[in-house]
Amino acid sequence: MHLVAVSDALLLRPLLTTVIERNHNGAFGRRMGGADLGELEAAVRELLAEGPLGARELGRRLLERGIGGDVEAIGNATRVHVPLVQVPPRGVWGVGGHARYATIESWTGRELETEPSIDEVVLRYLAAFGPASVMDVQNWSGLTKLNAVIERLRPRLVTLPDEHGKQLFDLPDAPRPDPDTPAPVRFLGEYDNVLLGHADRRRIIPADFPWRAMLAHGRFVNNLLVDGVLRATWWIEREGKRRATLAVRPFGTLAADDRDEVAEEARRMIDFAAADVKVRDVRFEAAVP
User: pTM of this prediction?
Assistant: First the structure.
């Protein structure tokens, strides 16, 4: 799930429509049953005018109207061909809930941007993730043919070479710390943009990182940075309200100082994530060589 400001949603949704439709067609295109998309959009807006509904319920009601023949495919299409928002409450920390949707216009009281600026989005991306290449921006956004955008913005940017001679772009006033600046330990989520924000991830992910060996059976595994590099995975094991353990699985042997810093940050994380649990522990798994 992605939480964004209303102004960002109104800007990003129309720009990313082609990406959203492409992903849907790749997964469900053959299951759409020739549904008329204009009829689908009108029906979804009519149904949601009565109040929020879940995707499966929307799909079922559309099938009752003769739109499509596959509940899952049509239910997913409602989020693709009509700009929707997921309304609260979906759930609370640690507890799931049923996702229900409303149109973005009815929920925000505002309309989508009619002339959304891709230039603004690229500049925002560079503010967060620069220096970066054109391929990095395209990988993050899913959009293509952004060379023309970068060329248009070039007078407002600075260019820098990476270690391999590739041209990177950044904002002139963006912070660029000395390469030897220490980076603190960071516990990231499973799909954190720090890891996913670039096409070339060698700056943060070791080329030989053993992804499969770093997983834990039956667990949602997250990622851990040590000195700015992916060096471990982590997860939380809960035994009801009685005990919660944060497990860390290092990639290679951590230096003593790094291990101490990881343990300290792990304690802060488990105290935050399992504040309702009586006993909270930190455990280091055997390192993966």
Answer: 0.85
